[in-house]
Amino acid sequence: MATGEILARKGQMVVMSGPSGAGKSTLCRRLLEDPRVHFSISATTRKPRTGEVDGRDYHFITPEQFRQLIREGAFIEHAEVHGNLYGTLRKPMEDALARGEVFLLEIDVQGANQLKLLGEPGLYIFVSPPDFETLRRRLVGRGTDAPEVVERRLKKAEDEYRERVKYDHVVINEDLDRALRQIRSLIGLE
Ligand code: 5GP
Q1: Which atom from ligand 1 is nearest to the alpha carbon of 106?
Q2: 81 with 44: CB under 8 angstroms?
C-alpha cells in the first residue's frame, strides 16, 4: 500500500565515499555526534584493526559467512575493496529509514554506484582531499601502511577521484569544521 511505501521512506539515506585519507571516517564520527544520525555497520571479511570493535565499526565475518549472506540476499550492495569483501546489510537500512532516521553509509564508489543503479533515493556525497600531495602526506603520516601499500591506495584514490562526477555533491575536506558544516547543511541537520 502507498502509505507503507511512504512510511518506508521517512528517513534519509546519506552515502559518503571518497579516497582513503580524504577524512571520511573522521567526518562520519563527527556527524554521528548528532542523535538523529545512525551509522550503517557494514559486514566485512577484513580483519579488525587495533581499536576496532566488532558490531560497532564493522561486523567482522569470514568469507564463508559473507558468501552465505550474499546467497540469502542480505546485502543491498557489496563489493571487493583492497582484496576484502564489504557489504551493506539491507535490513538495518530499511528499519532505520522506516523509523525516520538519517542513515549514514560510508562505502566505496562501487557500492555507491550499485545503490544509484538500484534507484535508491538518497544524498550521495563525495569527500575529496584538497589535492593529491595532501592525500599522500596524510597516508604516509598515518604511519600504518608500508610504502607499497600507500602507493596502491594512492593509485586507487586517483581512480576513485574520477568517479566524483557521479555524486550529488563533492565536499573538499581542507578544513574539517568547514567540511562538516557543509555536509550537515546538505543533510538538513542545521
Ligand atoms: P576500511 O577497510 O579502510 O575500513 O575501508 C576500505 C574501503 O571500504 C573504504 O573505501 C570504505 O568506504 C569501504 N567500505 C566500507 N564498508 C563498505 C560497504 O559496506 N560497502 C562498500 N561497497 N564499501 C565499503
Answers
A1: 12
A2: no
CATH topology of domain 7-187: Rossmann fold (3.40.50)
Residue 78 has pLDDT above 90, yes or no: yes
68, 87 contact by CB (below 8 A): no
- C-alpha grid cell, residue 77: 550492495
For 17-46, the DSSP string reads E--TTSSHHHHHHHHTTSTTEEE---EESS
95-111 residues labelled b (16+ CB within 10 A) or e (exposed): ebbeeebbbbbbbbbbb
Q: Pick the more confident residue, 72 or 147.
A: 72
The residues that bridge with 172 in the sheet, in sequence order, are 128
Q: Where are the alpha helices (DSSP H) in 73-126?
A: 90-98, 109-118
| Percentage of the chain modeled with pLDDT above 90 | 73
- By most ligand atoms within 8 Å of CB, the mutation choice from 26, 52, 81 for ligand 1 is 81
Residues in the chain: 190
Rounded distance from Cα 1 to ligand 1 centre (Å): 35
